[in-house]
Structures are given as structure tokens and as C-alpha cells.
Write a structure and sequence with these properties.
The protein is α+β, with helices and mostly antiparallel strands and 198 residues long. The chain has six helices and four strands; from the N terminus they run ααααααββββ.
Amino acid sequence: MPIRTNRGRAAVYRRLWGWPLRSPRHLAASIIIFVVVVVALGVIIPKVLDRKPSAPTSAGQSSTSQQGTQVGQLPSSGATLPTKLPPPSISASAAPPQADAQLIAELWAENWIKPPPDNNVDKWLAQLRPYTTEEFLAQMATIDPRNVPNKITQKVTPKKSYTSSADFEVGTNVGKVVITLVKAPDGKWRVNSYTKAD
């Protein structure tokens, strides 16, 4: 027979909520049931959640692996595609300073501090061209030759050296300068930049 009054419902609810407090035996049973329910939910919910994203993840992996191949070409079975290239090892590329690199640094420094008498930028760049990269020559076109040092006070010495680049330090009347050289595709060393030494 259904309960039709609020007072009747309240009595039923009071009996349900009051049941665990009737005796220590009821309280222990209530705690055990509660723990079992919590543990069961803790085991079931992760399994249910793991099942749902598993299908999209595998699809996403297959699509990303196929994006790395050519259009219309599926990856061969058993082939593994590299996800990331290893970072270049600086210690592996370190090398002793090369004599031809130091010679270019010395010749560049000598021509750098000796602009033409009329301070013509084009003439100055022309005498630096055999020792300088084209990119750096374009940057040097904005420099006024009158602002460069006019005397070398300390000879060119190697500071850092790698297989494809090298830093040399030279002392001038306005302070020390670090000259950076790079190895061009033809194998020749060229000055690519210079900065004031720390």
C-alpha cells in the first residue's frame, strides 16, 4: 500500500536512516557495506573510463602515424617511425681550432680595422668580402667605418672551436672582440659575426 502522507514518508525515512544507530551490530554492518560499495566503485569506474578513450586513442595514433608517411602510402608492417630526433651533441661536434679558420680570422681583423682613407663603405666591404659571409656583409653595410677600432693590441687567439664554427678573440684599442666564423658549404671558413667580449 503506497504511502500518501508526508508524515508517513518521514517515518519510513527515519527508520531507514536510524537503522545503523539501533545497535553496534547494525553500525558495523553499515560501515562494512559502505566500504564494500566504495571499493567496488573504485575498481569499476576506472575500468569503465579506460575502455571509452581506448578506441579514439588507437585511432589517433594510427592517424598520426599515417600522417608521417607519404600521401596514399601506408606504413609497412613492423616499421617504426621516429617520433623525435635526438638533440645534437655539442661535445661530439667539438674540435681543435683549425689553422685555416684562425688565418681567416686574422686577415678579417686586419682588414676590419683598416678602412680606406676616404672611409668609403663599399671599398671597406670589398676588402672584407673574401673573408665574410654574404649575410654578414649585408649587416655590415650599415656600419660607419669610422666607428671601428683602428689598432690591434692583442693577437687573434681561439676561444671556442667546433667542426662547423669557431670563435676567436682579438684585442683592440677599444676592447676585446669575439669573431665568430662558420664553415661554408664549399668548406671555406668565413666570418659570420662579431661581438664585444664579456
